[in-house]
Amino acid sequence: MTKPRIALFIGILCISIFPVIVRMNLTSGLISAFYRMAIATAVILPIAIYKGKLKLESLKTLFPIAVCGVLFASDIAVWNISIQNSSATQATLLTNLSPIWVGIFSLLFLNFRPRKSFWLGTIIALLGMAIFVGFETILNLQFDAAFFLGILSGVLYALYILVSKTVLEKMEVITFITYSMIFSTVFLFFVNVIFGEQFLGFSDQAWISLFVQGIVCQLIAWLLISYATQSMRATRVSLSLLSQAIFATILAAIFVNEKITTVQMIGSVIILAGIATTFYEKKAAD
């Protein structure tokens, strides 16, 4: 297993903690998204300054980085709201349609034709996801605001992966992540102000959860995932991210005593088989 793949695996493990924390409802979805970005930015910014990683070849590169920051911040905020206004299962299912959007957008806008292994892996993985969340959940989907927010979250996620892939080809990971998170933090600050969210007055448990989100789910996770994205195809990265649903379920069983059913185990195996399909091909550059 190559370093980028190891980094992707560990990064996915880190972000898998996030749904478990969100289910605790210790803070609102919007304020949670803001502090996730703000705490991560507060940690990485001094390091980037000390290492001299804030230099840019051209100020023009700030625009695509800002786009990435806004896309990512919007995805987190929209997903949080979706999960708190429907069910975690529904929100997870809809958000995890992102590999399809990555494949479609790659074909339409980047003139990149995803390989057959990607589409086959996507079909297998999405079948596994359907089994994992339960066909009853799919049949009972409510086409309300939360449903469309879940769809939007998947689209934003896909756009972020594609745009960040193009930006990361031109700069170091720490430079990209630092600037991107600065833009995300500023954007989410104003969103929270507009919606009248309270920035203080949380319980000790809530603050702990916010720091875990910021340091583990954001900083560590996305440094690793961004490093992997530099070397791997965006389609492959997006499909691999589906495995976070499996890890999130395992973590939920450990920390909030949720039971893992036989159906979920079967779905998990199929999801992993779909992801593995995209890696099973003749040797070629990622």
From TrEMBL:
Keywords of the record: Membrane, Transmembrane, Transmembrane helix
Claim: Transmembrane helix is one of the keywords in the record: yes
Residues of the EamA domain: 6-132, 147-279
Chain segments annotated as transmembrane: 7-26, 32-50, 62-81, 93-111, 118-139, 145-163, 175-195, 207-225, 237-256, 262-280
Superkingdom classification of source: Bacteria
Protein name, entry field: EamA domain-containing protein
Organism: Kaistella solincola
